[in-house]
Amino acid sequence: MQLDKSAIEAHNEYLIKDHERRFNYIAAEVQDVEALLQKLIDFQVAIPSWALGTGGTRFGRFPGGGEPRNLEEKIEDIGLLHALNNSSGAISLHIPWDIPENATHIKALAAQHGLQFDAMNSNTFQDQPGQAFSYKYGSMQHVNKAVRQQAIDHNIEVIKYGLDLGSTSLTVWLSDGSCFPGQLNFRNAFQNTLESLQQVYSALPDDWKMFVEYKAFEPNFYSTTVGDWGQSLLYASKLGSKAYTLVDLGHHLPNANIEQIVALLLMEGKLGGFHFNDSKYGDDDLTVGSIKPYQLFLIFNELVEGMDARGMKHATDLGWMIDASHNVKDPLEDLLQSVEAIMITYAQALLVDRKKLAEAQLNNDVVTAQEILQQAFRTDVRALVAAARLRSGGALNPLAFYRQHDIRAGLINRRGSKSMATGL
Ligand code: LRH
Ligand code: MN
After folding, report:
1. Is residue 176 within 8 Å of residue 140, measured between CB atoms?
2. Sorted alphabetically, which InterPro entries does this protein's record hold (predicted)?
């Protein structure tokens, strides 16, 4: 379903007066508003191919209907998001959930919707039908060399799919670990995993990156073999210059200071990218900015400061991806809200007066330092984000457009109320 540009124009015409009043107010407050708008226009967030259907838990899943039945329809849905907010210009595939049977056709279809292929994701946390060896006791950590080789071969196959689609990065998340003390020799598990990752690393094309995603727990509940940022950094440092850590916001123990982790990984030049979501307890995969918006702001504050300190290009030098699951919301509405939260938070972080903040830090002026951060966080930047969208051809209010045009009803009409998407 390709959105009709004139429908978006009609929507914007209806909202333009209000928008311009708000925009003119905030634009007067911002130094170099043009530069800020350009940064927002350039900033693209990759949408996960596994989060276009209704997610669930072991207790249940309540599909909402009209879910994409194949990769083509998933690309259509992400194309729809991108047409509305012009900030979702990439798709991150998960293999084997979304194998591109005909890569040329899939690449052309994605290009038609203005989409590129971001990081490819391998899957050695589930057993596929006909698979020779089970991953029940892990994949790259496994005591059995044949199981490790199977996981290595799968990751190399995923790189091949990515090459055909124009992707230039591989995310490796390993569910490997243990559920009980004594079950695992931690050093052997680390060494097996490192040797396995080294074999995948040596198959990486020169211009590719490998993202090593860490996670504190689940599905293993005693130890995880890539369990925190330190372990991921250890692997990425031992692997080489093309290996980086990947920060999934939901993969930390309670009260972890994620913004400090981000600052240090950036300082080391080993931060590869993000899986954005939000959580209150565990890996809840909730809408970005829905539970801890100030933490997200503090993370973007460190990102802008750290990337500028290294002369990095905000839009392209890190992997910006969402990784969420939609148990009670329409997946597309949830993703629109998540992208909006990321754009708002990035804009607020760009408003931080870095010079004054550095002065306050040098003077140990704690109160002023906090005031400078909260001044930016308490600034309503939504009209700036909307202006960037308007300039790049998007809708002033994507969510309102989606509802007013009953897009979900249209999808259910075409795909049925029982269609189920692959993924979590
Ligand atoms: C693991 C994870 C990983 C994906 C999976 C869908 O929790 O965050 O990034 O492979 O979710
Ligand atoms: Mn993730």
Report:
1. yes
2. L-rhamnose_isomerase, Xyl_isomerase-like_sf
